[in-house]
Amino acid sequence: MKLRPLHAVAVALVTWSLVGLVGQTRELRARSLAPGSRATPGQWRLASRGRERLERCLRAALPLLPENSLTALETPPADNGYLYSWVQYVLPERRFTLGSDDPLWQGVSHVFSYGAPLQDRRLRLGQNLGCGWLYEVRPRFRR
Amino acid sequence: MNGLGFVAVVLSAVALGTALTRRFAPGAPDSLSAGFAAGLIALHLVLQAMSILGLGWHWLVAPALGAIGWLWTLRSAPAPARERWALGWGDGAAFAACLLICGLAVAMAIDNPDFVFHWGLKARKFALAGGLDFRFLQAPSNWRVHPDYPNLLPELFAITSLGERSFHEPVLLAWSGLFFAAALLAAREALARLAADSLRRQAALAFIAFSVAGFVIATELTGNADALISWALLLALPALVEPAAPGAAFRLAIAAALAASSKIEGVPLAGFMLAGFLWALVSSRVLPRRALALRLAMVALPTALVVAPWLAINLRHSLFLTTNSGPFSLERLDRAMPFLARALGAHSWNGATAVVLLIPLLLWSRSLRPATTVCVAQLAFYLWVYSTSPVDTASYVQWSFPRLLLHVLPALWVLAAGWHGRSPKPLSSSITGDFADELPRLP
What we know:
The structure holds 2 protein chains of 2 kinds. By secondary structure, chain A is of the alpha/beta class.
């Protein structure tokens, strides 16, 4: 078969795309091994340590949360949307709401604070779950 | 055992889709890609209807539908022989790219954050609820999971995990590898109709496989629904180029329904595909006006069956987000432009976006014009979204546009490979093939 200029272009394009694919694969490896590359909830992936830690921690909370109960999630502002999704993902058996979306905690029976403990008179003394604190809302403050 | 539920759903979709193809497009050659898509749509319709009727999902739904499809296929006439294309090095390259993507997906090395923030989270909730979980979708904080999106992908994940009896992520991510393979099969079928010679077909297929695989790896894209839109458009190409060929109407109908059931931006794409098909049919002048209207009605039916319940669910449960669109703003468009240009030069695309420069040439070609116009219309729709959405335009474009390009670039590459090629075979001069036997029964 005679190689026409258009065919030479086609072969060059395939070679170019193959080189790109090899480069992307190598970059993926470097990216996933880079220290700190999967540090925040927005960067976590399914196989991340952060996910594993959160899941282990929240699984311990499962027996403490009644079925159909609603738990408010309190988190540092920078992470709240991402962490909210992760919390729902690793503990889909329970319902959560984001505390910053509903500061009055409508229908909330428990509050989970990721990271730092909370000081709030509406809450009973909490339990340290490792990655955060779980509190029960005092009955007279439930709405 | 891990993977059995996945295999059961896939085989069921193929069996059901093949039966539907034989029934509604009796003259069409078998297409694994189109048949698989048809099966997925049928499964989506059934699962969506069950949720609306308050019936809980059971993992046996998919195998039961597959068995019905298989029995139906046994009773139908065999499909005519497909135009053969001998396997070549391009196929080998595409196969290798598929293996790479499947391997990385199953190893959870390229999972997209949206698997957790959107698709997988919904699936996990739906699997637990045994259906679409409207309470979850309606929850005020859950606007973050795009509650108004069509649910084909979460449904597939959920029904697979019900079959698996666990939410086993590597198995669910294998769906992305499968969509990648199905899209490449659709590209291969389109190239067989469009590209002039073997070298060009093989080169185009290899280029598409490597470029898309590179992008999927660079952006860690498995576990989300963008590949479905890309697949839908590739599936539609032969029908948009040869609208009167046997099986074209059915293929287009399935492609449009697949787009509409995958993502919210797939709904306008389905509309563009249907309009493009009508344009191509009118240009081909093979159908009388009455037959044209009836055929278009039949072609639009699967999309209508997908979109109507989705709309009803969204309106009934007030799921549409106010951030989806707002008033048109030239200022927003102006702000978006530099970032759009930057996205075209994104490292993740490795220069493959240059195909947009060929759009004027593709529009020049009479046979490729409707298909190219559909691609351009979808790109224009994204511009409109960026010009109307009341959000931070710059970050919106940077975050989404390189990924949205995946929807149209593979189709443009196929069209570019076919641009200098032979004209498609002469169109049939009579109504044949898909939906043909439906026409007399319609009012």
